[in-house]
Design goal:
This protein is of the alpha+beta class. The chain is built from eleven helices and ten strands. Strands 1, 2, 3, 4, 5, 6, 7 and 9 form an eight-stranded antiparallel beta sheet that branches. A two-stranded antiparallel ribbon has the order 8-10. Strand 1 and strand 2 form a beta hairpin.
C-alpha cells in the first residue's frame, strides 16, 4: 500500500486507526483508499482539501450524516457520498462497512469542467450529496477501479483514466446547476479581473503560464487557449505589454533605468533594453530623452 499523507479525509481516518485495506496515488494527483471499519464512533471532517467520492462497497447501514443536530440514515451497500473540498461534515458510524474513497484534487475537477462543458470553473463545484443512489457512478467504480491492482504499473494508467471519467461524470451531473457561468470559449470577466490584479502585483517577479493558469484553476493548455480568445493576446505577450506600460511610467517618473529593469521583471538592463525597443520602437535611454 502507498502512503496517502496529505489527503485530508485519508489522514483523519488513518490517525483514528481505521484499518486500511488498499491505497494508491494515481495520475493527476488523484488517489484512492479502501477501508474496513467496524466500530461505533462520531467523526467530523474539517474542510478537506480534496473532493471525495465515497462508495459503501459492503455494509454501512449504520452510518448516519449529522446536519443541524439531526442525523439522517443511508441505505447501506451501494450508497454514494460526494464530499466537496472545503466543506465540513459530521458522521455517526455504527457497525461494519467496507468503504471506498476516491480523492479528487480541485484542479482535476476544474479542468474537467472546462474540458467537458467549456464552462468557467471559478464558481462550479460538486454539490454536497449524502447517500446518493447512482447506478452509473457505482458501476464505474465497481467495474473500472475496484477490480484493478492499484500498485501495478500496468493498471495505474487504467485507474487514472477511470478517475478522470468519474470527475467528468460528476461535472456532467452538475451541468444544470444554478449559477454556473458559461465561459463561451474564453475566460469569464471575474477570472480576467482576478488575473489582471495578480499580474500587476507581480510584474517584478518571474511569471510563467503555469502560474497564471493555476490562479484560475486551469491546465496551462486550456488557459492559454481561453486567455487568447478573451484578450487577443498570448499570456506572454500580455505580460510583456503590461511590463512595458509600467516601464514607461517609471521612466517618466525619473527612475534610473537599471532600477526600472528590476521593477519590471528583467534580470539585466541589456535584456530590458532589447525587449523595450522591440515593443516601444526605441531604446529606454532614447525614450527618457524624448518624453
Amino acid at each position: 500500500m502507498e502512503s496517502l499523507t496529505g489527503y485530508s479525509i485519508h489522514d483523519h481516518l488513518h490517525n483514528a486507526g481505521v484499518p486500511l485495506r488498499a491505497s494508491a496515488r494515481f495520475g493527476d494527483g488523484m488517489a484512492a483508499a479502501l477501508w474496513y471499519r467496524e466500530e461505533r464512533v462520531h467523526q467530523r471532517y474539517d474542510a478537506p482539501e480534496q473532493h471525495t467520492v465515497s462508495l459503501y462497497v459492503e455494509g454501512g447501514e449504520g452510518i448516519r450524516r449529522v446536519e443541524g443536530g439531526r442525523a439522517r440514515s443511508g441505505f447501506g451497500r451501494g450508497s454514494l457520498c460526494v464530499m466537496p473540498a472545503g466543506l465540513d461534515s459530521e458522521w455517526e458510524v455504527d457497525g461494519a462497512v467496507s468503504l471506498f474513497h476516491l480523492y479528487i484534487p480541485k484542479p482535476v475537477f476544474e479542468r474537467a469542467v472546462v474540458e467537458t462543458l467549456d464552462r468557467d470553473p471559478a464558481h462550479f463545484t460538486p454539490r454536497d450529496q449524502s447517500f446518493l443512489r447512482d447506478p452509473v457512478l457505482e458501476g464505474m467504480i465497481r467495474s473500472s477501479i475496484l477490480p484493478l491492482t492499484w500498485d501495478e504499473p500496468a493498471d495505474r494508467l487504467a485507474v487514472t483514466h477511470a478517475g478522470r471519467m468519474v470527475a467528468a461524470y460528476l461535472v456532467g451531473r452538475e451541468a444544470d446547476r444554478a449559477g454556473a457561468v458559461l465561459a463561451k470559449g474564453g475566460l469569464s470577466p471575474q477570472a480576467l479581473r482576478r488575473l489582471d490584479g495578480y499580474i500587476r502585483d507581480r510584474l517584478a517577479d518571474p511569471l510563467s503560464t503555469e502560474d497564471l493558469a493555476r490562479e484560475v484553476g486551469l491546465s496551462p493548455f486550456h488557459f492559454s487557449r481561453m486567455f487568447k480568445q478573451s484578450t487577443g493576446e498570448s499570456p506572454h505577450a500580455h505580460v510583456t505589454r503590461l511590463r512595458m506600460e509600467r516601464a514607461r511610467a517609471l521612466i517618466a517618473q525619473g527612475m534610473p533605468l537599471a532600477q526600472v529593469a528590476g521593477a519590471c521583471g528583467f534580470a539585466g538592463q541589456s535584456h530590458f533594453a532589447k525587449r523595450f525597443k522591440e515593443v516601444v520602437g526605441i531604446t529606454p535611454g532614447r525614450y527618457a530623452q524624448v518624453i
